[in-house]
Design brief:
With about 425 residues, this protein is of the alpha/beta class. The protein is built from 16 helices and 12 strands. It folds into 2 domains: about 210 residues, Rossmann fold (3-Layer(aba) Sandwich), CATH 3.40.50; about 180 residues, Rossmann fold (3-Layer(aba) Sandwich). Helix 7 links the parallel strand 4 and strand 5. It binds uridine-5'-diphosphate (UDP). Uridine-5'-diphosphate (UDP) binds next to helix 3 and helix 12.
Length: about 425
C-alpha cells in the first residue's frame, strides 16, 4: 500500500515530497504538541486533522490535544474572538477569571506533555494562557493566530497580549494581521488537503445523489456558502444577494453549516437565518454534522458559484475548497479572502450584497468566463494553498527556531525505503 507521502506525490510531484523529507530529517523523533479548543468544526480542526498525521509520517512525534471548558469559558473566548476581529465587547472580570482558571485546570491535565515537548504550538486565544502556568518548560512555545487581528478592540488585545508576549514566536496568516510583539513573527497562510474526504475527486453519481437527497434541482444554477452560522460570515447578506440575483435569473441558494463545539452563538444565528429565509423553496439551509466532509465536497462540486461573503475572515478555507473544485468564488473583500480571490482571475471580491449580486449575474451570463476562472482557481490553489506548502513552511520555521543559531544545518535526503 502507498504511504501518505507517496499519495501526495501524485498531486504535487516527487520533488516537493523529497523537500519535505529533507526538512524533516533533523526533526526525527522530536515531540511536537499542538493545542486548540475543538476537535471538530471550523478551520483550525480541519487543518490539524491532516497536518498532524503527515508530520508523524515524516518521523516527527506530533500530537494534538484540546482544552475544554464550561459554557462561561466558551462564552468568554467567543467574546474574545469577536473583539479581536474588531467588535467592541466588554468581558466581565468573572468571565476572564473563568478563562484563566479553565486554562489552569487544563494545564494540570496536560502538564507532563507540555513540559516535555520540544515544541508546543498553541492555536488561537483560547489556550493562550497555558504558557503562563508552565514554569519548567523544556521546549519552545509558538502562538499560532488564525483570526483577523488587523483592527482589534484594543482593551481585549492588550489583555491577550500579556499572555502572547512570552511566547518564543508567533505565526500569522497575513501581514496585515500582525500586531507588534518582541519575538520573531512568521507568516504562514493555511492550506487544504487535496486527499481529504472534503477535497478528493468524487464520482458524478455521488454528486447527483447528493442533489436528490437534499431536493436541490440540477437544472437551476446553484450558489453556495459553506460556513459556521456566524455573523462575521454574513449569511443574511448572502440571502439578500440571492434575492437580488433572483429578480433577474432563476437561481438556488444553499447555505450549509453546522456548529463548532467552541462556538456558543451558532444556534441563535441559525434561527435568524431561517427566519430571514422564510419559506422560499429555492433557499436550502443544510444543517450538517461536523463530519459531513463528503457531503460538503459533493455540494461544492455540484455548485456553479461559491460565495463566501464574510465581513471578517481569518483565512477562509471554504474559499480554498471552492477554488480547488474549479469554481469561481465571490468573496468578501476582507482578511484571507484577499489572498485567495484575485479579481477577474478566479472570482471577484465584493463589499456588499449588491456587489455580490452584480458579479453573480455577470458570471451566470458568461459560462465561458466562469469555466476559465474555474481552471485558474484550481491551478492557483495547486501552486499556493495545498497542505504540502503549509507543511514545508512549518518545518522550515521549526528548523530555523531550533537550529537557526548554528553555522550549518544538515538537511539530508533520507534513502527511500
Ligand atoms: N465546515 C464544515 N462543516 C460546516 C461548516 C464548515 O466542515 O458545517 C468546514 C469548512 O468546509 C472548512 C472549515 O470548516 O473546511 C471552515 O474553515 P474557514 O476557515 O472557512 O472558517 P472558520 O470556521 O475557521 O472561521
Amino acid at each position: 500500500m502507498e504511504s501518505l507521502l507517496e499519495q501526495y506525490a501524485h498531486v504535487v510531484g516527487n520533488d516537493v515530497i523529497d523537500h519535505l523529507r529533507q526538512l524533516a530529517y533533523p526533526l526525527k523523533g522530536m515531540k511536537i504538541l499542538h493545542i486548540n479548543s475543538t476537535k471538530e468544526g471550523g478551520g483550525v480542526a480541519e487543518i490539524l486533522n491532516r497536518l498532524v498525521p503527515l508530520k508523524k509520517e515524516l518521523g516527527i512525534d506530533a500530537q494534538w490535544e484540546i482544552i475544554t471548558g464550561n459554557r462561561d469559558f466558551y462564552q468568554c473566548t467567543k467574546k474574545m474572538h469577536n473583539a479581536l476581529q474588531g467588535n467592541q465587547e466588554s468581558i466581565s472580570d468573572y468571565l476572564l477569571k473563568t478563562y484563566e482558571e479553565t486554562n489552569h485546570e487544563n494545564y494540570e491535565r496536560l502538564a507532563s506533555r507540555l513540559k516535555e515537548a520540544d515544541l508546543v504550538f498553541i492555536h488561537d486565544p483560547q489556550p493562550a494562557p497555558l504558557l503562563r502556568f508552565c514554569n519548567d518548560k523544556k521546549g519552545k512555545w509558538i502562538w499560532r493566530c488564525h483570526i483577523d487581528v488587523s483592527h482589534p478592540y484594543r482593551p481585549v488585545w492588550k489583555y491577550i497580549r500579556e499572555f502572547i508576549k512570552d511566547y518564543n514566536a508567533s505565526i500569522w496568516s497575513l501581514s496585515t494581521f500582525v500586531q507588534p510583539l518582541n519575538h520573531p513573527l512568521y507568516l504562514i497562510p493555511p492550506s487544504i488537503d487535496p486527499l481529504s474526504e472534503k477535497n478528493i475527486d468524487l464520482p458524478e453519481k455521488e454528486i447527483s445523489d447528493f442533489l436528490q437527497t437534499w431536493n436541490i434541482k440540477k437544472d437551476i444554477p446553484i450558489i453556495t456558502q459553506v460556513s459556521r452560522f456566524d455573523r462575521f460570515k454574513d449569511p443574511i447578506g448572502v440571502i439578500q444577494c440571492y434575492r437580488l440575483v433572483k429578480n433577474y435569473v432563476p437561481v438556488q441558494l444553499v447555505l450549509a453549516g453546522g456548529g463548532a463545539s467552541d462556538d456558543p452563538e451558532g444556534q441563535q444565528v441559525l434561527d435568524e437565518v431561517r427566519a430571514f429565509a422564510g419559506d422560499d423553496p429555492d433557499i436550502h439551509i443544510l444543517e450538517l454534522p461536523p463530519d459531513a466532509h463528503r457531503t460538503i465536497n459533493a455540494l461544492q462540486r455540484a455548485s456553479d458559484i461559491i460565495i463566501q461573503k464574510s465581513i471578517k475572515e481569518g483565512f477562509g478555507l471554504t474559499v480554498t475548497e471552492g477554488l480547488w473544485k474549479g469554481k469561481p468564488v465571490i468573496g468578501g473583500d476582507t482578511g484571507g479572502i484577499r489572498l485567495q480571490v484575485m479579481n477577474h482571475h478566479c472570482g471577484f471580491r465584493v463589499n456588499s450584497p449588491e456587489g455580490a449580486a452584480l458579479r453573480i449575474r455577470y458570471l451566470l451570463r458568461h459560462p465561458d468566463i466562469m469555466e476559465a476562472m474555474g481552471k485558474n482557481a484550481h491551478t492557483f490553489v495547486l501552486e499556493n494553498f495545498l497542505i504540502t506548502r503549509h507543511l514545508r513552511e512549518y518545518l522550515t520555521l521549526i528548523v530555523a527556531l531550533l537550529y537557526g543559531s548554528e553555522e550549518t544545518i544538515e538537511l539530508t535526503l533520507p534513502v527511500h525505503e
